[in-house]
Amino acid sequence: MSISTQQLQLLLHYTPLLTTTGTLMFTLCEDLYLRPFTHLDPLAVNEILPSYIARWFPAGFSVILTLYPLTWITTMVNLLRMHGPQRRHAWRWHAAGLFFSIAHMWWGRRAKTLLDTIRRSPAQPQLPNGDPVTLLAAWLRLNVRRGLIADLPAGICFLIGALTRGRGVGHNHAA
Questions:
Q1: Which of 14, 48, 124, 134 is the most buried (most CB within 10 A)?
Q2: What does each C-alpha distance from 84 to 93, 94, 161, 166, 175 come to in angstroms?
């Protein structure tokens, strides 16, 4: 079974939307799985949270390092392939989606610093920014804010871009 050129074009066309949907779901899942730690006994959570974050972070970070670059690369390829006046609106939506997707990284240093501080907390009993639960709560606020300001608008832009560009995808004219 081989994949046709038209199928590859369709896959390329929808990949930014699909990967951004994946990052939105990942953001939601992070909140669903980590927020309960902020509602439990802080003494117990402060004891286990550093080792939990140390095991969770590498896998989570690999998701980020896979989905975002895949979004950016496929969006750039799509932008380079969009020609003609009928594609101008789709091009703008894809460019806006790319901007918002890259904007996710504006919070990267702060987010990583918070998680690194939680991971190192057993070696630093007197954390300057608070205990691990307090730091996790700060990270969760940052993550939700980042999702609403960057990831959700990126997804909306890619959806509109995909729908706007949807006519003629996979056909021989200016796909």
A1: 14
A2: 15, 15, 15, 14, 10
3 state DSSP class of 15: helix
Q: Provide the residue range defining the domain that includes 23.
A: 5-167
Record the tokens describing residue 55, joined without a space.
């095991």
Integer angstrom CA distances of residue 70 from 15, 33, 94, 96, 98: 8, 25, 14, 16, 11
Residue 24 lies in a domain: yes
In our burial notation (b when 16+ CB lie closer than 10 A, e otherwise), range 75-106 reads: beebbeebeeeebeebbbbbbbbbebbeebee
Question: pTM for this structure?
Answer: 0.86
Instruction: Answer for the pair 102, 112: CB distance below 8 angstroms, yes or no.
Output: no
Nearest alpha-carbon partner for 65 in 104, 25, 118, 11: 104
**What is the count of structural domains for the chain?**
1
Q: Which residue has the higher pLDDT, 21 or 175?
A: 21
| pLDDT tens-digit map of 120-148 | 886 555 555 568 999 999 999 999 999 99
In a domain, 23, yes or no: yes
